[in-house]
Design a protein that fits this description.
By secondary structure, the protein is an alpha/beta fold. 30% of the residues lie in helices and 22% in strands.
């Protein structure tokens, strides 16, 4: 299974690879089994993409979703396969991948450097005001990874701790909301949306956050002891779990991942139609199983 092979190489991969700079790309010429017959959304809309390259933003250090092999330079994962299938189904001659982070994916989408983003991008009402999202192809939940030796087993143990999160993510807001609902933050009033949450000034009961540009940096900071915990979606944390690390018991804030496109992009409706089709016919379930994500 691809997932198991990748797990064997992850330690070396994370040491050798670093996230590509904004706008850098790595192209591929994949062979896919997707049907490009006349009943595809692109054909139905009369679009001719045969001389175009679909530019897709993806992660490169999230095993099972988007992972770039440091030796071969090849990308693999659920989101990589979906991107290839989208390109093939919509008649593109090729697909080109750009590594993105939570902080850069929307900038590159807005600038036109990317046509779409498949990068563990959570659908929220606030984000839908700025970008289009497909129907969710995967649902996860936020949790926290800690060092086993620290004895933290649930969110109660995070009071007074410094927690590492990715810049531009909604993980900190999700955790603060969960802690607040459990009465762990005293009289703190949680903002109505993540857009109103000021992570840089948050410090209740000694609990605080530090933002990092990528996931490996958070993991390294936890190893060095500069942060006490690592908060993000559980499927992402799986890459950084080990015998010396464990998840806390709590999960919260279900995270639905969708394909993001620019607002009113001509790609939005065709991509959504494809995702719905693949959810209905079992294609996505098969990929989820193939990459060990269920």
């Amino acid at each position: 299974m691809k997932f198991k092979k990748l797990l064997a190489a992850v330690a070396a991969g994370l040491m050798m690879s670093s996230l590509a700079a904004c706008g850098s790309t790595s192209g591929s010429s994949p062979e896919t089994s997707a049907d490009t017959s006349a009943d595809t959304p692109a054909a139905a809309a009369g679009e001719d993409n045969s001389d175009k390259i679909l530019k897709v933003g993806v992660k490169d250090a999230v095993i099972g979703f988007g992972y770039k092999d440091p030796l071969s330079g090849e990308y693999s994962g659920l989101e990589i396969e979906l991107a290839k299938k989208i390109a093939d189904s919509l008649g593109y001659k090729d697909v080109e991948f750009t590594t993105v982070t939570a902080a850069t994916r929307t900038e590159l989408l807005d600038s036109g450097d990317l046509d779409c983003v498949l990068a563990t991008f959570t659908i929220t009402d606030e984000r839908k005001k700025s970008w289009d999202f497909s129907t969710a192809y995967y649902t996860d939940a936020v949790t926290v990874l800690v060092e086993t030796a620290d004895g933290i087993t649930n969110i109660d143990g995070l009071v007074g701790k410094k927690i590492g999160v990715s810049t531009g993510s909604t993980s900190a807001y999700a955790l603060v909301k969960a802690m607040s609902e459990k009465g762990l933050l005293g009289d703190y009033v949680i903002p109505e949306s993540s857009a109103d949450f000021d992570i840089s000034s948050f410090s209740e009961g000694g609990t605080s956050f530090e933002q990092f540009g990528d996931y490996p940096a958070i993991s390294n900071a936890m190893t060095a002891g500069t942060v006490d915990a690592f908060c993000v979606d559980k499927s992402i944390l799986a890459t950084y779990k080990s015998d010396d690390r464990q998840y806390i018991e709590d999960t919260f804030s279900p995270q639905e991942y969708g394909v993001a496109t620019k607002k009113d992009s001509p790609l939005s409706a065709p991509i959504d139609e494809l995702i719905k089709t693949w959810l209905g016919d079992g294609t996505i379930d098969g990929l989820i199983s193939e990459y060990g994500l269920n």
